[in-house]
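Title: Prediction job returns without error message
Component: structure pipeline
Severity: low
Priority: P3
Assignee: unassigned

Description:
Job completed but the reporter wants confirmation the result is attached to the right record. Sequence as submitted:
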Amino acid sequence: MKNYISLAFLFISITLFAQKEKATTIYMVRHAEKMTDNPQEKDPILTSKGNERALALSKLLNAVSLDAIYSTDYKRTRATAAATAKDQHLEIQLYDAKNIKAAAASMLQNNKGKNLLIIGHSNTVLETIEAMGAKKPFDSIADQDYNNLFLLIINPDGSTEVTAMHYGAPNSYTEGEQMMH
């Protein structure tokens, strides 16, 4: 009888441990370097440096098993996500950066306890972090800053941790004036 009770206790412990909620881990970046030579172009492609940065992002995240990748519906954001999506065998899911609060709520609701990559813009990344319940690590991202990588962890109790770091090559600051963020 003791063995059955011990076995039952072990099974209950394993079941409870397995059901413990996991943190949601979000990697968030601005799109990589974009073409800035044509002020009339509202949806520019990535530069060669931008393509290199997109590959660097994929290589960096290769050690992470992502569950979803989100991008705004622009050439530069989708291109920044493309190599990672290919390497992780995931489809890029689009979100509307004009409604960040709703997009953030939807991403969190659909991906609780999972690992995500979100590609945004200099004027949306920090706001997305805030919409997900965390404090922005700084006030703004400069027009020519492309190498920021934010790690946002949302714990099961709702508490958050944000770490700001850099990835890929240092910013070159050689791109022209930015038309769009």
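Comment from assignee: result matches the submitted record. The domain at 22-166 is CATH 3.40.50.1240 (Rossmann fold).
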